[in-house]
Amino acid sequence: MALKITASSCSVCGACEFECPNAAISMKNDMYVIKATACTECDGDDPKCAAVCPVDGCIVQA
User: Fold this and answer.
1) What three-state secondary structure class fits 21?
2) Domains along the chain with CATH numbers
3) What is the Cα–Cα distance from 57 to 22, expressed in whole angstroms?
């Protein structure tokens, strides 16, 4: 299963994009999105994107 970014919570800071080891996060229509087919949730480790996100609850299970 992949992660998703809650649009209403996202501050569009960009921190998550550069932490993703799979390049699954990108900007789309002035908002960051996670490509579900590329997200591996960091293969069982703590998701790197969620770890650097300054907004609690912004990056969640899809």
Assistant:
1) coil
2) 3-61 (3.30.70.20)
3) 21
Task: Give me 7's structure tokens.
Answer: 């649009």
Q: Report residue 28 as tokens.
A: 């789309």
Contact 3, 53 (CB under 8 A): no
Residues in the chain: 62
Q: Which amino acid is located at 50 in the chain?
A: A
CA distance 42 to 21: 7
Amino acid, single-letter form, for residue 41: E
pLDDT single digits (tens) 2-44 = 999 999 999 999 999 999 999 999 999 999 999 999 999 999 8
Prediction pTM value = 0.91
pLDDT for 44 equals 81
Residue 10 contacts residue 31 (beta carbons within 8 Å): yes
